[in-house]
Design brief:
alpha+beta; Immunoglobulin-like; 3-stranded antiparallel β-sheet; 4 helices; 6 strands
Length: 178
């Protein structure tokens, strides 16, 4: 994933924080500060134990935001995606990906960030297939401002212009809706 797509995803996520996002990150900050205070209190008795608590607190502060985003995304903003068509146009250097986003959440969405990745198609399994997913041929992020109701479906289309790769490709979709 390129840095612009990562930045867009992160900024969109932070801009659309809800109550549970604030509560989760507030609890994380409270826990971190409590562990630091605990480490300073036990530093008088054992510096090794204090250092261990500080390391745990720092690991918690670094790793927990990723788990919070994943867990809240699955719980509060649950969506699935499906690709219906991937077509390379014959007379132009364009690739079209059509797909659908399904809302499995209990709330309506008004905005979706859809990320489409194009990777080389390979018949192999395992490490080579995994490496192909890490280095996609093309990535496109689209911010769709359209209402997606509860249990609703939204159709969308991504067009990759100047797509000159001549081999077979696979597409993958990821949607974050708010």
């Amino acid at each position: 994933m390129n840095t612009d797509a990562l930045k867009l995803s992160l900024l969109t996520y932070v801009k659309h924080f809800g109550l549970y996002d604030y509560l989760a990150f507030g609890w994380l900050l409270f826990t971190f500060l409590a562990l630091i205070i605990l480490a300073s209190l036990i530093a008088k008795k054992s510096s090794v134990a204090s250092l261990f608590v500080i390391i745990i607190a720092l690991m918690l502060l670094i790793v927990s935001p990723f788990f919070i985003k994943i867990k809240l995304g699955k719980t509060l903003r649950n969506t699935t995606t499906e690709i219906s068509m991937v077509k390379k146009l014959t007379f132009s250097d364009s690739l079209i990906v059509e797909g659908s986003i399904y809302n499995h959440s209990n709330k309506d969405f008004s905005l979706c960030l859809v990320q489409t990745s194009i990777v080389k198609q390979s018949d192999t399994q395992g490490l080579k297939a995994f490496i192909n997913t890490l280095k996609p041929i093309a990535i496109q992020s689209i911010l769709v401002k359209q209402d997606l109701l509860k249990e609703g479906v939204m159709e969308f289309q991504s067009v990759f212009d100047d797509f000159v790769y001549s081999g077979d490709v696979n597409a993958s979709l990821k949607a974050e809706c708010y």
